[in-house]
Write a structure and sequence with these properties.
Layout: E1 16-19, E2 23-29, E3 43-51, E4 53-58, E5 61-66, E6 69-73, E7 79-84, E8 89-96, H1 97-105, H2 113-120, E9 123-125, H3 128-145, H4 153-176, H5 186-201, H6 208-215, H7 219-230, H8 234-250, H9 257-263, H10 269-280, H11 284-288
Helix pairs in contact: 1-4, 3-4, 5-6, 5-7, 5-8, 6-7
Length: about 290
């Protein structure tokens, strides 16, 4: 950990820098963060404004960012500050891509369309109850990460930030009906259609060629489009949906692994076990037993 000697009104150090291997945060600082890789991975950022205001650019979009607002930027997106007030103060989380994936994989059946929404939606105008919750998230993370000898620090932060992302997901669901699919540009329309097909067919079809054929485009072009919009390949999304479904079925004690194999359309129990272990590091039995 690194500390400055600039103390805020609360008596704690300003610009206090606290880190896990793939998660960093700073509480109550006037310095806007420079997004940098963590463990050679792209990183994202969640910034909560405590006081003042700043003019912020995310790609070509410009925002006035002020007290009690939140900005969320996904890995791979660029953010900069053009100007800020003298009393500008923020707290922020800097999160690696792997850390975000761990957070979101713990939220079952999360719609991939959420990532398109988050790619467009960077600024959140928070209501009073939301301001309170966001403030609490930062305080709770701070209380668990600060003591270096506390066990399970990373696990606690991952689970806590799942709640934060669920708040963002709730915002997405609330606004979903206001989004006209017809207003999506061509690539976003293709991505939307791809995700709908995946949700319908991922149990039966796990090859990119099937979805490309349904969309009447080449697998190469489909891969290019999905990566451009979501920063992940079509294969990654298909695998994630499959793994999430297997995990959900494994939590049902009434189903044995052979029954799950049939439900997921694998050729054999051994084939499903290899697939599951390749992507999770555990066999289905180990996952079910919590090992």
């Amino acid at each position: 950990m690194e500390y400055s000697t600039d103390r805020g009104p609360s008596g704690r150090n300003r610009n206090e820098y606290v880190t896990l291997d793939d998660f960093n945060y700073i509480m109550d600082t006037g310095v806007f963060p420079q997004i940098r890789p963590i463990l050679n991975q792209p990183s994202g950022i969640l910034v909560f404004c405590l006081e003042g205001s700043a003019k912020v650019n995310v790609y070509t979009q410009e925002y006035w960012f002020s007290k009690n607002q939140l900005i969320v930027v996904l890995p791979g997106q660029l953010i900069s500050v053009k100007e800020k007030s003298e009393d500008f103060r923020i707290s922020y989380f800097l999160v690696s891509l792997e850390f975000i994936e761990d957070i979101l994989r713990g939220i079952p059946r999360l719609s991939p369309l959420f990532f398109i929404y988050m790619r467009r939606k960077h600024q959140y105008m928070l209501q009073r109850d939301e301001v309170h919750r966001i403030s609490q998230y930062f305080k709770l993370v701070d209380s668990w990460v600060q003591p270096a000898d506390k066990l399970f620090r990373r696990e606690y932060v991952v689970n806590l930030l799942r709640l934060l992302y669920l708040d963002l997901y709730n915002n997405y669901i609330s606004n979903l009906l206001a989004i006209e699919v017809s207003s999506y540009r061509r690539k976003e329309q293709l991505t939307y259609d791809f995700f709908l097909l995946v949700m319908m067919h991922f149990k039966e079809y796990r090859e990119i060629a099937f979805y490309a054929d349904k969309l009447r485009i080449s697998p190469k072009y489909l891969t290019s489009v999905i990566k451009g919009v979501s920063y992940r390949s079509p294969k990654d999304w298909i695998v994630d949906y499959t793994i999430m479904e297997i995990k959900a079925l494994l939590k049902n004690a009434a189903l044995n692994i052979q029954e799950i194999t049939v439900m997921m359309n694998f050729s054999s129990q051994a084939s499903m076990s290899r697939f599951f272990k390749k992507h999770t590091g555990k066999s289905p039995t180990e996952y079910r037993l919590g090992k």
